[in-house]
Amino acid sequence: LRARYLIACERIPEAMALIKSCINHPDISKDLYFHQALFTCLYMSPLEDQLFQEVLTDCKSGIEIICNTEKEGKTTLALQLCESFLVPQLQNGDMYCIWDLIFIWSKLQLKSNPSKQVFVDHCYQLLRIATNVRVIFPFMKVIKDEVGEDGLQICVEICGCALQLDLREDPIMKSLIYKTIAHFLPNDLEILRICALSIFFLERTLESYYTVEHLYKCADEEYNECTSSVQNRVRFELLPILKKGLFFDPEFWNFLMIKQNCLALLGDKA
Predict the structure, then answer these.
(1) What tens digit of pLDDT does each residue of 246-265 get?
(2) pLDDT band (50, 70, 90) for residue 52
(3) Radius of gyration of the chain (CA)
(4) Containing domain of residue 14, as a range?
(5) What distance lies between CA 172 and its chain's CA centroid?
(6) Domain count, the chain
């Protein structure tokens, strides 16, 4: 109660002294209120830059503090706290609680500034500092949920950027990106075929081969810009990126030749 009173009166140095004493106590420090109150004091003081240094190591506790701060109507502080936890996780490549943090961050960011363009720009800024390519999935989820029709195109562009990274040590991730692109563009037969072949080259399984066979037995379709989910520009930028993962260009081969080469790669499984 004393801490709350001091904060309400904006007697921040006194409040911080009291709160830090409570945080240093082995029993009282278990109450997350004092950690939350410390962030509030830092936010209200010239020491605001210390927010990143004062972050707790446990993200689950941090998420609880962020949500409690938001419930008190302090959206700006909650957003700063969320970024204080999220940024180090992205920089360290740590996926612990990352889905929750990105989801909460997206809601707070849009509440703070409803502009969809600003939201997308901030997503790109956070993606640039990420060291683990797997974070593209929670970011694509919030972009697709929050941005609407344009969100799908942005997600396809993110996948294309991710494929240009060095993923030789992570074929599972690379395969997952191809599957995601195929999921986003289910009506584009050419891209579906390239993705299926790329997945087959990475996985070398009968299941992935059967997908290739099924797609090549479908009747060829002319690409129709009017029915495409993405702009022409995005599609034609994506095609050469996708083809880099192929052992051969299927444009110049009929299905019989593709089948023979795929079966050769299957080896004994064939």
Answers:
(1) 877 777 778 888 899 899 98
(2) very low
(3) 25
(4) 1-54
(5) 17
(6) 2
